[in-house]
Structure of Fructose-1,6-bisphosphatase class 1:
Amino acid sequence: MSKVTTLGQFIIERQADFPYAKGELSRLLRDIGIASKIVNREVNKAGLVDILGETGGTNVQGEKVKKLDIYANEQFISALKSGGECCMIASEENEELIYIDSEISSEAKYIVAIDPLDGSSNIDVNVSVGTIFSVYRRRSTDVPVSPDDVLQPGIRQVAAGYVIYGSSTMLVYTTGCGVNGFTLDPSIGEFCLSHPDLKMPESGTIYSVNEGYYVHFPEGVKKYIKYCQVEDAASNRPYTSRYVGSAVADIHRSLIKGGIFIYPSSAHVPSGKLRLLYEANPLSFIVEQAGGRASDGYGRIMELKATAIHQRTPVFIGSSAMVKKAEEFMLRYSPRN
Ligand code: P6P
């Protein structure tokens, strides 16, 4: 029986990765892990209790809000508030920033951007959903912290991760020293190290895009999709198409098997659909740390300037060879104006 390493043990063991930290980031990551287990419990029985269905409200994205979205948002906010290591939160479910101004948190070091339950439209049909989080160090010493402190480029993230509530529940995160995956063992209620030092395959044979919007895609995306579909045994084409409709699931598959996930700009979303702060940047940090590539079609997502907490960006994320090929098509057929 190989040694079981829980998330808590792993975080403590890897404390040495950040010599100047005094344990605050470790405690923040553990707080997120605990909230994830609470959300997981509700996601797993969503069909059994009246937590499904719509609240009738819509979130800042104008999307119908499922009760589980609100529940998950409340759990992560509560865990971050009581943990005392976070001074401000940007959440997909909240139009405005959440300032944690208790005496223990107003001077806390970290800021969290979070999508508490991404892909929630899939819950009713029992398809994987996810939580995505990004952690920044505050830059201002003001109390309360400056709102600009959450508008940092992705390259300044100190940690990022996702939880995928699927056939099993996994937490995958990075602090800039590689990527590690933990699977929830319900028998002991702990996330256990199951995928140490995850590396994304340099190439793959799966492309993931919602082709229902094909006619509205930029020419470069159309040409890349056709490239994926053309027979060429030498490069293992045609590729396979897989699209879950939950970015965490589509990108997790690419991380394990190789592949590319694309959500480009389109007529219905001129700047793309995924949000920079709490979807694209954290997913990009993880993918880059695993050896993959994360682009907006022209350059690194993590170098994009953040100007608004809910801003969107096109995403081409996955195996580096595949993303580079897609960027070639974008450069040639849809050059940036
Ligand atoms: P579409 C979920 O709502 C989400 O933000 C991502 O997780 C997912 O990749 C995308 O939207 C799906 O969008 O337009 O294909 O339904």
